[in-house]
Amino acid sequence: MTMDIRLARVDSRLLHGQVATVWTSTVTPNRILVVSDGVAQDKLRKTLITQAAPAGVKANVITVNKMIQIFQDPRFDVFKSLILTETVQDMVALVKGGVDLSRTGVNIGSLSYQDGMTMLTDAIAVDQAAVDAIRYLHDDAHLDVYAQKVPADKKQDLSVLLTKKGL
User: Fold this and answer.
1) Could you list the residue ranges forming a coiled coil in this record (predicted)?
2) Which tens digits make up the pLDDT trace of 122-165?
3) Could you give the angle at which helices 88-96 and 64-71 cross, rounded to 10 degrees?
4) What's residue 19's pLDDT?
5) pTM of the predicted protein model
6) What is the DSSP string of the chain?
7) Sites in the chain below the pLDDT cut of 70
């Protein structure tokens, strides 16, 4: 057995209201794993994230390498996980490290805009590195990569959105 991943989501805001309430009640995890090397080193952000977890669900902030290690460790088979990364590139690193997301695919919730980026949806902005990472997950890892802010929203295939934007 391996860890039961209920949702793998990229969201530049990480653990916030929509994730803590709506997504958690939909996918019913017993653990939220925020996977980010940067946040794992930032004591304040780490504390804020662990405190934002909804009642009954524990949140941990771990590095990309730690997630890869614990995914295959049978001691963590009891985890019903909601995995959050800040970037698509971190999700690619997990997949390349052996974390199996074939059951869930990759949900892209929001990627914040910076100058020079292209808006794919009202909540998702991409630069070339994000485009390359999405293409890798879809084309090479053969994963369903989709935009969906909340469960009630219709899934939007990101490879289709990239093609429509000429990316």
Assistant:
1) none
2) 999 999 999 999 999 999 999 999 999 999 999 999 999 999 99
3) 40
4) 76
5) 0.94
6) ---EEEEEEEETT-S-HHIIIIIHHHH--SEEEEE-HHHHT-HHHHHHHHHTSPTT-EEEEE-HHHHHHHHT-GGGTT-EEEEEESSHHHHHHHHHTT---TTT-EEEEEB---TT-EESSSSBEE-HHHHHHHHIIIIIS---EEE-SSTTSPPEEHHHHHHHTT-
7) 1
Report the topology of domain 4-164. Fructose Permease (3.40.35)
Distance separating alpha carbons of residues 39 and 155, to the nearest angstrom: 28
The pLDDT score that the predictor gives to residue 18 is: 72
Q: How many CA atoms lie less than 13 Å away from 166 in the CB half-sphere?
A: 1
Please give the backbone phi and psi of residue 156, each rounded to the nearest 5 degrees, phi first: -120, 125
Q: Which residues are catalytic?
A: 16
What is the reported pLDDT for 157?
97
Ramachandran sector of residue 105 (left: φ over 0; alpha: ψ -120 to 50; beta: rest): left
